[in-house]
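Hi R.,

Quick one: here's the ABCB1 protein sequence you asked about.
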Amino acid sequence: KFVMCSGLPYAHYVLVEMLGTLPTRVAHSAKMAIGFCLPKACVPVDVPMIINSTAVQRLVPDLSVLQVTDVHASDPVGDLASPGAGFAASVSVVAVLAVFILLSTWWMAWSATQAREEAPAAAGRRNARSFRCFEAFSLVGRTGTISKLVELPPYKPTDCLNGLRVIAMVHVIIGHTFLMPEGVSGYSNPQDISLGGLNRAVAENNPLLMLIVQAEMSVDTFFFLSGFLLSHLTLKEMQRGGGANQLLAILL
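And here's the predicted structure, written out as tokens:
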């Protein structure tokens, strides 16, 4: 509906959130959200009147048996805020990092080419003069990201944690997929999740819902593993000695 409405030059999509109550002896209320494709002349102030109109109740018969209150309308496109200083700062930081990665990759590739053309002694001196930061951010080279993707690393005692990290990461992605639509796009359907008077076939009755909702435990697990591995690598670097290496290990 949103895609169809966005393609019409004379209409705009409006997401209407409301509280629907069944007029029974024991009132059951639930938050609802319905998308409408309205003429551009209609503003959010007109939405409560439109919801209670006879035409809309004929199109959506369920509204005729509900007492609708707390009607709020939002335009996912028209209500978007223009990019501010935070957006500009974020783009600038990402652009600087991208340029630095490309520069580091070019430097490491050029250094490797020069090393093959020069004598071994001169190549060794050139490698000694190479910047550690270029080596850390380069996509190619001995420690490059692309090079490491195709390289089979030697066994480490912490390899047993990789499977747990992958499981935790997948669980976090599933949990965010369930929770983020409400925060990002404003879509919310609690009547299909929590048990109420409007719907009995809700996700709350399915044990698999707990597997999704408890994804926050995987967030804690992932952070714990990351902190453990970071501390482990930092301690190893401190045992080797060297102030610069310790500082890089802490920062990176």
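Residues 2-74 form one domain.

Cheers,
M.
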